[in-house]
Amino acid sequence: MDYKKVGRYVVLGILFFLPVTFLLFLYPATHNYTPLDIVRQSVEDIDGFQPVSNQDPIVFKEHITVVGFFGKQPMEKVITASNLKELVYDKFKGFKRFQVVIIVPKNTETEVENLKKEIASYEDIRFWHFVFADEIDIEKVFASLKSEVKLDNNLSTDHVFVVDQDLNQRGRIDDRTDNEKAKAKQVYGLYSYNCIEVSEIKNKMSEDMRILFTEYRQKRKGEFDSETRRANDLKEHYEEN
């Protein structure tokens, strides 16, 4: 028996079947994944807010938007902005309809320009927008979001929110760990993402964004099944609230 020839065929067989097996494992996960929860509907859109000069109007509708509030002193949010850019924006900026929108009060234009220089680093930030608004309008948008945090006196927060193309806020109705579920701990949600907590942005937010883009990709292909377990969870969630 030619053991070298047999060994060669075994290796070739492994190299052929291993990727196929891996794809078979991925296939059900791709088509039966659990979509990202809708935690609040009818988020206030920002049509009418003032974008940076020479820029087209910015809106949430028909976009997948990460929304932030950097307040009256945007330069104080350098760390928040840097983490968001490096861990989320840079990863998803190539996806269709993706944008980051940072809402700030009027008369902060100079600080905004300085902040843009801090985070740009000669990179493409054309999908990262700053918009200016009156304080009452900023508070109105924030009030339309489900949140366990509040804006501070400067109208800012380190938390960011995810709004889908239909003005639904996305997040997690049940953010318990498997261990907490096993112990029947009280349900708690995740409605925003703290950009100071790197692990939260890298793990939870990045994963949630990936799931949301998968949902829209499947919708375009006509493969998305809206009759999922989380749809039932959502119904129960709104009945309780």
The CATH class, by name, is Alpha Beta
Secondary-structure element series: HEEEHEHEHEEHEHH
Rg is 22 Å
- The assigned CATH architecture is 3-Layer(aba) Sandwich
User: The CATH topology, please?
Assistant: Glutaredoxin
Can you characterise this structure?
- There is one protein chain.
- By secondary structure, the chain is α+β, with helices and mostly antiparallel strands.
- The chain has a single domain (37-240), classed as 3-Layer(aba) Sandwich (Glutaredoxin).
- It has 7 helices and 8 strands.
- Strands 1, 2, 3, 4, 5, 6, 7 and 8 form an 8-stranded mixed sheet that branches.
- A hairpin with a 5-residue loop joins β6 (156-163) and β7.
- α2 runs parallel beside α6 (198-221).
- The longest helix is centred in the first third of the chain and has 29 residues, at 3-31.
- It is globular, with a radius of gyration of 22 Å.
- Residues 22-32 and 227-241 have low confidence and may be disordered.
Keywords:
241 residues; alpha+beta; Glutaredoxin; 7 helices; 8 strands; 44% helix; 17% strand; disordered C terminus
Explain briefly what this protein structure is.
The chain has 241 residues and is an alpha+beta fold. 44% of the residues lie in helices and 17% in strands.
Question: Topology, pairings included?
Answer:
Layout: H1 3-31, E1 37-40, E2 50-51, E3 64-70, H2 78-92, E4 98-105, H3 109-120, E5 128-133, H4 135-143, E6 156-163, E7 169-171, H5 178-182, E8 193-194, H6 198-221, H7 229-240
Parallel strand pairs: 3-4, 4-5
Antiparallel strand pairs: 1-7, 2-5, 3-6, 6-7, 6-8
Helix pairs in contact: 2-6
